[in-house]
Structure formats: structure tokens, C-alpha cells
Amino acid sequence: MSNSKRKLSLAGSREPFGKVTSLEQIPSALFEILCLARELKTPKGDQIVSLVDDVITVALSDPESWLKLENMAANGYKTVFSRQESEIS
């Protein structure tokens, strides 16, 4: 492989800041979001940093957190992920 090839993330073999296509890629994507948000240096960027940092902290404190979400859904707990515009200011 030549040095001109872009390096791939270790987790899930995807390019840094590339499309997330599997659950294994979520941890590296969260860290990438955190890095990008830190570069913003705005109040919104600070909010994003805080939120993503909290999600990472919870996930690191309980490595089975993603599995627990799946189990909660299997037991009837409805977790809804939806794409909607936010009016948070």
C-alpha cells in the first residue's frame, strides 16, 4: 500500500470523518465529532463538545451500554431515533 493512500480508522475500517455504516464505527465517529466541535470555538460548539463528551463518558463507564439499549428494545422499551430539526439556542 502506498503512502498516498488515506489512513483508515482502526475501529470498523472506515476513513476518518467518513460515513458511519456499522455499530462498531460509532465510538471513533463520536471522537471525531468531539474533535470537530472543539475546533468551532463557539457557544454551539461548546454545547456539542459537552454533549458528546457526556455520551462518551457514559459509554466508557459502561462498555455494555449499546448492548443494553438493544436489550431494552427487545424487552418492550421503545427507543426512538428520529431526524428532526432542533430549535435549541
Characterise this structure:
The chain has 89 residues and is mainly alpha-helical. It is 49% helix and 0% strand. The chain has helices at 26-40, 43-61, 65-74. α1 runs antiparallel to α2. Mean pLDDT is 78; it is low at 1-9.
Percent in helix: 40-55%
Mean pLDDT score: 78
By secondary-structure content and strand pairing, the structural class works out as mainly alpha
Indicate the proportion of strand residues: under 5%
Low-confidence stretches: 1-9
Rounded radius of gyration (Å): 16 Å
Distance between the termini: 47 Å
Q: What's the tally of helices?
A: 3
Shape: globular
Q: Sheet bearing the most strands, described?
A: none
Number of domain units: 1
Order of helices and strands: HHH
Number of strands: 0
Could you give the topology of this structure?
Elements (H helix, E strand, L loop, with lengths): L25 H15 L2 H19 L3 H10 L15
Helix pairs in contact: 1-2
Summarize the structure.
The protein has one domain (8-83).
